[in-house]
Each structure stands twice: as C-alpha cells, then as structure tokens.
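> Could you send the DUF1907 domain-containing protein prediction when you get a chance?

Sure thing. Input:
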Amino acid sequence: MQIERLPLTITPLSDVATGLRPALSKNYATSSVEVVTCPDLRSTPFYLATQGLSGDEKVADVGGQPNLFPNPRLERKWDMLELARGMEMDIDRVDARGGLIGAGAGPCHAVGRNCELVPNLSFYQPRDGELEVDNKTCVAQIKDGMPRVEKSPSRECALMVNLFGSRGDPGPVLKITAKKRIGKEKSFTECIRRGLVEAFGDERMISLGGAFVVRSGICHYHIMPDFPPQSKGQDYTWTTAKELNDWLTYHDFSAKEVGPIVCLSVLHSADPEKLGLRMEHTHCASMEGKAAGGHYHGDVEGEEEVEYEGYFNTAKTMYRIDRPEVTLERDLHE
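Output:
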C-alpha cells in the first residue's frame, strides 16, 4: 500500500460543538450539539462492534471514485485489517483492541455483485491465541431486482472506502441531534461539514467520524446495481458523471416503516494538502433485519418529520492510502 500520513491539528470538542450550532440551528427547527460521554454503541439502535469512539482516533481515505469512473478498476481491493495496520492501529500488539466504521464499496468479488459497504468491525489481540475479530459489516445490494441488506461474507472492500478508526473506548464525543428540517440542506452530514467550514475556514482540516440514526422521517439513498451480464466490469465505461448517476438505483426508506436506520460517516472540513479526499461519505443499513440501506443522500420533504441522533469524534491523524493517480475535483454523487 502507498500511504501518506498527515497529523491533524487537534481542536477541542467543545470548540467544535460551539462552531457547529449556528449551521444546525439554521437548517433544523430543533437541534443540539453537546459534548457527552459516549453511550454504549454496541446496544440498540446502533449495534456497533465497539463500545465507543475514543482512543487514538484516526481516519483513512482509501482508493477513491476514480477507481469507479470512468472505468471500474476491480483489481483495487483491500482487507480492512490490513488497512488498520496501514493506519498504525497496532493491531498485532498484545492486548491491542480497536475498531473501524465508515463507508465504501463492497467486495463484489466475494458477494457476487456490486454492493454498498457499511464497515463495522472490531478486533482484539489476546496474550495467547489468534487475533479475535467481530465483523458486523453489512452490505446493501440489489438482489433479484430488490434492495437487500445482509451481513458481509468478507472483511474486504473494493474501489474506495472511508474509515474512522479508534480503540473503541468510551470517552467524550459530540452528540448531535436535529429534528424537522427548515433549511435547504437535505443532508445531515453535509450540514455538519459545512458548519465546520463556516466556523473554522477551508484551510483548517477537521475530520469527524461517527454514527447517527435516522429515528423518523424518509431519507434518500442509492445502491449500485451490478454491471450488465455481458460486461466484465472493467469493460464498462461512463462518459459523464450524469450517466453514472443515472445507472445507480435510488430508494426512499421511511424509518416509520423499517425502523431506525443506522448511518456510519466520515467527513472533512477541508483538504488543504490536496490529497484528493472524499469530503463526506455516509453509508447506512437497517440493523433490525429490514431491506433498507445504501449510500445516504439526505432527507425527503413530506409529511414525516426527519429526526437524527448522532455521536461523532474528531481524528488526530489522516491516512491517504493508495491515492489514485488522477483524482476528481468533486464528488460524483453530490
């Protein structure tokens, strides 16, 4: 792996909370940002593989959208434990423990078709014995013409992935809530990201990772379908971003109908070192066995008022891994 390491300026969580409040209050009728002790995220409704989001916090941007557009590069795939090693998570040290969450492209070679990855795993290295891994990672896919959410059969990802890593300890985090959108920004995470830019400028890089739950309302998601049967993937070519986005399948899921939808997210306020970062990436899945999930775009205006509750932490180090030779100027899926 080719790894670029960037230490980040540490911004106190209290300062981040103060900076975020104006953007959220402009976009939602009710919102709050406070520093709290992280609840046990292993329990309902989050079902994460780690208890918390603290301890040696870091983020990684692996691969990127140029591995999909204009031609898929299906040979670009990684084991998430190897990525943890690349992120200097001391995975092989005795008593080492940690976890990864985030958003990426699933292991189509293992699943049998394209899919959206919802990374969610933890590891522990006991004094005696092999590394213990709890892989709760899910994939959202189109199977038999319908959305499906299933446990991933693999620890691998492909094409691109954005990860937040930590020891998974309990500790102080940002608790962010919002209810009833009144502004124009449909995306909860993009509202947070733009709030960081407004508060701290676009030359100071603040990276957040965390999980939020859609408690009520309808949100909009996409899921990659498989390539046409006659294509081998690499032979598939898009000439414009619109053509690629038209190829995706789009779905609106109501929390009233499918229950809480858990979303795992990594976002950055800026990319001052021009690393070709994905500035915001969020993938979601129903953790209660419902066929709902995918790449999160935002809420859908309607009769159901959206409500979010999320827990985030800041990263101390950024790892840019296997950056494509050519990077895109903007997210293909804005």
